[in-house]
Amino acid sequence: MIRAPGSAQAIAATFAVLIPAVAEGFLGHAVVVDTVGADGLARIADATGASYLRAGNAEGWHLGAKEARGDWLLLLDAGDVPQLNWAQAVERHLLLAPDAPALLPLRGFAASLRERAAISFGGRRLRAGLIAPKGAVLAGRLGHAPRRLQTGRERVSG
Question: Is the N or C terminus of the chain more exposed, i.e. has fewer CB atoms within 10 Å?
Fold first, then answer.
């Protein structure tokens, strides 16, 4: 799921990294949750074969999870760009800890500190970068604090 509070340019950067994982069969279906009514997002979603829905920021993850087809969901914001080997890190996590959520952390010192604080003070809330069971996303809360993966993600602005 890609929550899109930003521009079409930002979501294009995210899709550019995700499309190879779709081609490899690692990712099956994308859902674009447009939280601001940005121009061009519906067209980009359609062009990539993703589902598109319009929702407010607060209910975006929940409504996107209802639309998603898989048992596990990757939550991203438009502009999130997973780093090299992210799919292998996620696959390894799902093999070793199949019941635990994971986090593709943001890279950069300030972003990492904010994310670590969020985990410490509200570690079971939904946020971008999570790999979580669909049921947890539908419930709006993780059963366990996520495990930080060794690879991460960067955010491009757009």
Answer: C
